[in-house]
Structure formats: C-alpha cells, structure tokens
Amino acid sequence: MSAFRLCAQRLPGLRSFPKQPASAITQKLAVSPSPPSRAQLLNAARLSPRPQLRAFSASARVSHGHVDPPKPGEELYVTFVDKEGEEHKIAVNAGDNLLDVAQAHDLEMEGACGGSCACSTCHVIVTDQKYYDQMPEPDDDENDMLDLAFGLTETSRLGCQVKMTKELDGMVVKLPSMTRNLQASDFK
Ligand code: FES
C-alpha cells in the first residue's frame, strides 16, 4: 500500500479534500491581458480600504518633582539651605529622593538629567557627617558624576540618589552656590 493511501485511510479528511477544477485555478492565475488604465487605478485606490493609522504610544512620562505629602505622624524632615542661606524645612515621606523634594517645593535644583545619575546639577552638601554616614555609599556612577560637581566636598551627594529614610530624619543639606551642567556645557 502506498504511503498516501495509508495516510488517507488514517486521516479520512484527506479523502474528502475538495478537488478544484483546473479551469478555476487557471482563472485565478489569469493575468489581465492589458494593463489597467489610469482611471481604473485611481478608482481602485479610492475604493481600497485606507491603511490603519498607527497609534502613537510612549512610555509613561517620568515625572520629577512630584511627591505626595506625608500622612500625619509619618513625616520625616529635611532642611534645604538655599544659595542665599535661607532654610526650607520640608516634611517628606520615606523613600522620597532629594531632587524630587527640592523640585516639588520650587527650590533651585536643576536635575538636568532627570535623576538618571548622568549630570551633577542635583549636587547637595550634607552639613552633618552623622547623616552622611547613615546613607548607603555612593555607587561608581554617582562618584563619577560627583567628580564633575562644582565645589565638591567630603559630604557631597547627588540629590537624585539620596532617598529619605528614618535615619536621615532631621538632615540638613546645602545647595551649592554653583552647579555645572555638562549636558548643556553651561555654568550656572
Ligand atoms: S539629576 Fe542628574 S545626576 Fe541627579
């Protein structure tokens, strides 16, 4: 018995596969004897369904400078000393980073790279070594950027990399008198 027959016996659907007359196939393959006229082409284009417009999509915008106010009883406090020496004591949540807090309160912290550790415009100086020691060590990326910071000190950090914790409650940070914005090759 041939292999085809064997298959056909086991798969009865194969036997009932409808045969198409040769004429139907040649009809489908038939090429139009003369090229379509310009009017026919225009008509066909007008009647053909329009291509679907592709929807524009983008990943969610990372919003900097937005922080939620802390619930009563859960506040941690950080004080920013601005370039004029004015103090701004702010109640924050654990986990808020200093860049977001500063921007949410209209303090002058540029954050040119949006908190991705690629500039030094969020440079802050922790005024008390005690708090500085409570922070996790800066990683290599942060250290590289800090090396470019204007007026680097022993207790300098990048604000976008410092998240508030219970241990940092009461911390005071100074905003340096100048920052260096390497992204815009600009000094401020
Ligand atoms: S905002 Fe650029 S490093 Fe912090």
TrEMBL record:
GO MF annotation terms: 2 iron, 2 sulfur cluster binding; electron transfer activity; metal ion binding
Cofactor(s) needed by this chain: [2Fe-2S] cluster
Entries under InterPro entries matching the protein: 2Fe-2S_ferredoxin-like_sf, 2Fe-2S_ferredoxin-type, Adrenodoxin-like, Adrenodoxin_Fe-S_BS, Beta-grasp_dom_sf
GO biological process: P450-containing electron transport chain
PROSITE patterns, alphabetized: 2FE2S_FER_2, ADX
Keyword Iron-sulfur in record: yes
Chain ranges of the 2Fe-2S ferredoxin-type domain: 76-179
GO cellular component: mitochondrion
Keyword Repeat: no
Superkingdom of origin: Eukaryota
Keyword set, alphabetical order: 2Fe-2S, Iron, Iron-sulfur, Metal-binding
Pfam families with a match to the protein in the record: Fer2 (PF00111)
Similarity annotation: Belongs to the adrenodoxin/putidaredoxin family.
Stated name of the protein: 2Fe-2S iron-sulfur cluster binding domain-containing protein
